[in-house]
């Protein structure tokens, strides 16, 4: 049985963080019980998001002025890592919501009145948000592809047409932000869309891992967006002095490291009690099993230390956030690659039984590999490091 609460965790530094971690632990334990069924069916876990609403988790990064907890990036990482120990799909999905709210708060790109309305809906009505940027033709937006989704200027607003992919949370998105090429200026803008007429979900999500994120395609056909729902665009003067917001993306490595932590916990618990009839002691007493456990610990300690250190620097070094972008990429690289190794090692410890759907490891093995395909990609991180070393 996987355990969640760990009061000795050295990354919990005060009572507020302990409370945030405890809530995530409680939810993780509940979600872990439901995860096998959702994974098997590829079904969206609606009940998990009901629990997230009821617990107040949706408002984790909403500013205090608007009724939220205004979590720091460090607190976001802490909460997400622990939530993912129970169910990676749910943690990754809600990570985009709380990360987006943090991004909008930091950037100031969203008109203040509109941002206040969205926050109020999150706190009072349980609104869940995501920003949809990926498209089949452009690949990852982090590589600079221009969206084929078009925004045509009309009287009082815009008409949006196009198709977005990897639309995580699509089954419960009543509102979402999309990127589109503005036909009047050929620049890229972001718009708040309301689900309804002209918006259709294509159920395309049938994957090896992260099967319960609901990351289907969304098609928009002539959807009207009023001018006040322009989040950012060529005419938005708030973007002339961009504010670094990349820290919110640490929710990604936090999630995958959390999955690995869950796999590690399961493997250690298994090793401590599993005693084949060929042995007089549990397998945890065997030197090669202890070596494998030690290697898991080495990866986990190294990755967590760098991840939390980077999050803490982001929170504290406000004037140097632009220079921390490379470190954010390194944190993602270290955490996700370590997570893959940890889960693999956990399966080696458990042996052939790890392939059974009766155990969570085979799901964790599939889920954790998805981290390699979330931004920033490994090759981008390595290239950025090389360029920095070369003084470019």
UniProtKB/TrEMBL annotation:
Q: Which InterPro entries match?
A: Acyl-CoA_Oxase/DH_mid-dom, Acyl-CoA_Oxase/DH_mid-dom_sf, AcylCo_DH-like_C, AcylCo_DH/oxidase_C, AcylCoA_DH/ox_N, AcylCoA_DH/ox_N_sf, AcylCoA_DH/oxidase_NM_dom_sf
Residues of the Acyl-CoA dehydrogenase/oxidase C-terminal domain = 252-370
Q: Coiled-coil regions in this chain? A: none
The stretch of residues making up the signal peptide is none
Spell out the molecular function terms from Gene Ontology.
acyl-CoA dehydrogenase activity; flavin adenine dinucleotide binding
Q: Does the keyword Oxidoreductase apply?
A: yes
Acyl-CoA dehydrogenase/oxidase N-terminal domain residues are 31-104
Task: Give start and end of each Acyl-CoA oxidase/dehydrogenase middle domain.
Answer: 133-223
Record key words, sorted: FAD, Flavoprotein, Oxidoreductase
Provide the cofactor list for this protein.
Answer: FAD
The text of the family note is: Belongs to the acyl-CoA dehydrogenase family.
Listed PANTHER family: ACYL-COA DEHYDROGENASE, ACYL-COA DEHYDROGENASE YDBM-RELATED
Q: What is this protein called?
A: Acyl-CoA dehydrogenase
Q: Which organism is it from?
A: Paenibacillus paeoniae
